[in-house]
Write a structure and sequence with these properties.
Strand order of the largest sheet of chain B: 15-16-17-14-18-19-20
Number of strands of chain B: 20
CATH superfamily of the largest domain in chain B: P-loop containing nucleotide triphosphate hydrolases
Strand order of the largest sheet of chain A: 6-14-13-12-7-9-11
CATH class of the largest domain in chain B: Alpha Beta
Number of helices of chain A: 11
Helix content of chain B: 25-40%
Largest sheet of chain B: 7 strands, mixed
Radius of gyration of chain A: 23 Å
Shape of chain A: globular
CATH superfamily of the largest domain in chain A: Reverse transcriptase/Diguanylate cyclase domain
Oligomer: heterodimer
Helix content of chain A: 25-40%
Strand content of chain B: 15-25%
Structural class of chain B: alpha/beta
CATH topology of the largest domain in chain A: Alpha-Beta Plaits
Number of helices of chain B: 18
Chain lengths: 343, 522
């Protein structure tokens, strides 16, 4: 181990000498980050701590000014790297994984911690991904030890395969990131998806599933949270009105302390209605009184349900188990209503 | 409201807009607060009169928010004050106490701020009210009733663990001297408390610690103790009138058409009789205290709503060695090896997909006599007409491993649900009968969906009451395209069928390379 460490240190400093011309000294080459990642996996196993990696894949460039020169690309890369280094913590290790791919190793960071870093990176890089010239399409994929793999190599493989999953996600395919929350709800609930992860169905009077089925789903999710109170997660339940007679009240009261952040949102809130460990938010938006929204993400599950009231008590619903879509919906919901962008 | 007035909030802000906004917000909600516009002034005020909460801007002049936090956190007089940080961007704060301090980034909803203030004040109250010394002793020297009264008068908060000479343990949660809940094995609330009060021997240990569970005992400590003692006395006087523990009961009414407005205990007993006809089992599984269950049973028997069909000797349909400790540990080890996430290893999920809800109920009924099997009464007895969704039963194995039976509705378009909640999946049970045979296609769709993401054993259960003939078996084997080593289990066959079904599941888990695959997540 000592020899390896010495080699790493030497390599690191020799790299710094060469890369000083282009990048900040905290940006490393593939050899260094991969060796560091392997050591981080050993450390995490030894101390029973999680750690995460984020792979940023530059998918494509879009330029109104025509083909890009080598200098354009180098300038772009410099801006990208410098911004990433500003966003991540000092203890995080950033480097080139391979062509078009940058990796960030996040010590002591769990799944949700890595999602927050991705949020920060996306925000910090907005000037390159949406407003820049040229602007780039960047895909952020992550993997966390130990949930996604017990070795660094396994984690890189999982994160790399997720780049493909993200590109195939409905979030990317329908460019939902450019839409407002209720536009997304309208797009998804009026679709006719019947893929494995995306399904539309109708619910209400005269249907095999009645309106009460929403309550069944919400109760089931709360039960899952109650069974694993230490597992981190986030749940938004959009119910028509936050009132004492909500059928969820008893289950919510029984929850106790949980690592899942639970938000009950509605158009209005009955005065004096409070449930310990649950944040109730009245958003004063009449669209909430005509819809049901359930958005749930935990360390090992993702489920999103959107239902919009139509004619004669029939709801058009869409549900999904795609974590990228659920995450996108949660982020869009938080932004549009100026809620805390948290996980 | 009184509580809020006692609690003072220190508002350490300097931007005019923030000061106006926060002052208005706190005034509207009747919080008592004081204002400091720089870090030095805020430190002075916090040390002279420690507030219940500090709402602080990280960019505070003179001494910034983070620095002030470090100073006050290290001062013994102010170390317990929770901080609510306000900032434009998310920032790492050294020493941030998760569960005590809160971080809010701008912009935020005032509703969210209110919830955060409420939470932070609650954390502060918990910390302030807790001492740190244990109380230990023997029940033969101090009865549980006396001990509870002492803890009540001293307004203690913590967990009281009571252990019988046989090693059985119960916990009573106490907060501010009030009894919040009691747990004894699988039972809780008044039933557990009253059973614990009957213990004359054993040890107790009170551990002061924050109690974060909701209050499940709905009366004052004094009333609970008096009621418990009364019920125990009454039980002793009347026990010769009650039905024998080994008697079998049968209901003479249709439980689906019971009138509304009866006592909740009656609905629960009539529901449970179907699953637990033996008096002793029914009393154990009913959530009401034992004395109330026995008196209600007597009343129902006297009114001929329930009848005693026969008395039986202690008879187990299944051997105690249904799952031996060795097998239970092997199952647990197998599951641990399959999942990297250590939080997941306490339970394994088995999906039940049936062509009708009635089959799910029949299956649970057939499982009820398995050792340590528990039924989710709330879900199975709900009458909202919606399909069953979620945990319908649970089998507890030696070593703290639960096998959870999770019902998935037999309707189309539930694929995302199958994927989203298949974490810890260790098996799939498909149930059908002749009457609902046209829906078998749903079962096949579900099987395909589950197996596309998880490699788990599939068990086939035929729910028809007619005997399962070889021609029928062949028909379904072909229909489901079953492998040679897979079996069709008749649900209404011999009572040992369920035993065999679970043994097949466990044998597959421990022998084969099952339970692979993982969810794709960002």
């Amino acid at each position: 181990m000592k020899v390896l460490k010495k080699e790493l240190v030497e390599k690191r400093f020799s790299l710094l000498d060469e890369s000083k011309k282009l990048f900040e000294s905290r940006f490393y080459d593939a050899f260094f980050v991969n060796e560091y990642g392997r050591l981080e996996a050993v450390r995490s196993e030894r101390y029973g701590m999680p750690f995460s990696i984020i792979i940023m894949h530059v998918d494509s460039f879009n330029s109104a000014a025509g083909p890009l020169t080598k200098k354009d690309l180098l300038d772009f890369l410099k801006k990208l790297v410098n911004t990433v280094l500003k966003v991540v913590r000092n203890c995080d290790v950033t480097g080139m994984l391979e062509d078009k791919r940058i990796i960030v190793i996040l010590p002591h960071t769990d799944y949700f911690g890595s999602l927050i870093t991705i949020k920060k990176l996306k925000k910090g890089l907005e000037f390159l991904t949406t407003k820049g010239e040229p602007y780039a399409s960047i895909i952020f994929a992550q993997a966390t030890y130990p949930r996604d793999g017990k070795t660094y190599t396994e984690m890189v493989r999982v994160a790399t395969s997720r780049i493909g999953d993200i590109k195939n996600s409905l979030w990317e395919r329908l460019s939902l990131g450019d839409k407002l929350f209720w536009e997304i709800v309208a797009t998804l609930t009026s679709g006719s998806h019947s893929e494995h992860e995306y399904v539309n169905f109708e619910m209400g009077e005269g249907m095999p599933l009645g309106e009460g089925f929403i309550n069944r789903i919400n109760q089931m999710i709360l039960h899952e949270i109650r069974k694993n109170p230490k597992r981190r997660g986030i749940l938004y339940m959009g119910i028509k009105s936050i009132a004492k007679d909500t059928p969820l009240r008893d289950t919510l009261n029984m929850l106790g302390k949980t690592a899942t952040k639970i938000f009950l949102v509605g158009e209005k809130k009955e005065p004096g209605f409070d449930i310990k460990n649950v944040t109730t938010i009245a958003l004063n938006d009449s669209r909430l009184s005509e819809a049901y929204i359930t958005l749930f993400m935990s360390e090992d599950s993702a489920y999103g349900l959107l239902c919009r009231e139509g004619w004669q008590g029939v709801y058009s619903c869409f549900h999904t188990s795609d974590p990228y879509l659920v995450e996108g919906l949660i982020t869009r919901f938080q932004r549009d209503y100026e809620l805390q962008e948290t996980f | 409201m009184k509580e809020r007035k006692k609690e003072k909030i220190l508002l350490a802000l300097f931007e005019k807009e923030d000061i106006e906004g926060f002052s208005k917000f706190l005034k509207e909600r009747e919080f008592d607060f004081v204002l400091a516009t720089d870090g030095a002034r805020a430190m002075d005020m916090a040390i002279n009169e420690p507030p219940s909460l500090i709402i602080i801007d990280l960019k505070l002049p003179v001494i910034n928010g983070e620095r002030l936090f470090q100073i006050l956190k290290n001062n013994p007089n102010t170390s317990r004050i929770p901080f609510l940080f306000i900032s434009d961007t998310h920032q790492e704060i050294r020493g941030f106490r998760t569960g005590t301090d809160i971080f809010l980034t701008k912009p935020f909803q005032w509703e969210e701020l209110y919830e955060s203030v409420r939470q932070a004040l609650a954390f502060g109250r918990e910390k302030a009210s807790i001492g740190d010394k244990d109380i230990q002793g023997n029940l033969s020297q101090m009865s549980l009733v006396d001990l509870l009264q002492v803890l009540h008068f001293n307004k203690k908060e913590g967990e009281l663990v009571v252990t019988s000479p046989e090693g059985e343990s119960g916990i009573i949660y106490i907060k501010d001297g009030q009894l919040y809940n009691a747990i004894l094995g699988e039972i809780e609330k008044e039933k557990a408390l009253f059973r614990l009060i009957t213990w004359k021997d054993g040890t107790f240990e009170f551990m002061p610690k924050p109690v974060n569970i909701p209050q499940r005992l709905g009366s004052t400590t004094g009333n609970l103790i008096m009621e418990g003692v009364r019920q125990i006395d009454e039980f002793e006087k009347a026990k010769h009138l009650f039905p024998d523990k080994d008697s079998l009961l049968k209901t003479r009414v249709n439980t689906a058409t019971l009138p509304k407005g009866l006592k909740p205990i009656i609905y629960e007993i009539l529901f449970l009789v179907e699953y637990y006809p033996r008096v002793g089992d029914l009393v154990d599984h009913c959530s009401f205290p034992d004395y109330e269950v026995y008196t209600t049973l007597m009343s129902l028997i006297n009114r001929r709503i329930l009848v005693e069909v026969k008395r039986i000797k202690e008879e187990k349909e299944f051997s105690e060695e249904f799952v031996s400790p060795t097998l239970a540990i092997r199952i647990k080890e197998k599951v641990i090896n399959r999942w990297a996430d250590m939080l997941s290893v306490n339970s394994g999920k088995v999906f039940l997909v049936a062509t009708s809800d009635a089959l799910i109920k029949d299956f649970i009924l057939a499982c009820k006599n398995l050792p340590d099997f528990h039924i989710n009464k709330a879900l199975l007895s709900s009458d909202d007409g919606e399909p069953l969704l979620g945990d319908v039963g649970e089998l507890r194995l030696y070593g703290g491993m639960d096998i959870v039976l999770f019902s998935v509705p037999p309707v189309r378009n539930m694929m995302p649900m199958l994927r989203a909640f298949s974490n810890n999946l260790i098996g799939l049970v498909l149930l059908w009968d002749e009457a609902s045979e046209e829906r078998v296609a749903h079962l096949m769709e579900s099987r395909k969906e589950v197996l596309s993401t998880r490699s788990v054993p599939v068990l086939y259960v035929y729910g028809d009451k007619k005997p399962l003939k070889s021609a029928t078996i062949l028909k379904y084997r072909t229909l489901f395209n079953m492998a040679e080593d897979e079996t069709v289990f008749p649900l209404h066959g011999k009572k040992t069928t369920i035993f065999k079904l679970f043994r097949t599941l466990f044998d597959s888990l421990t022998k084969e390379d099952y339970i692979q695959g993982s969810l794709t997540a960002t």
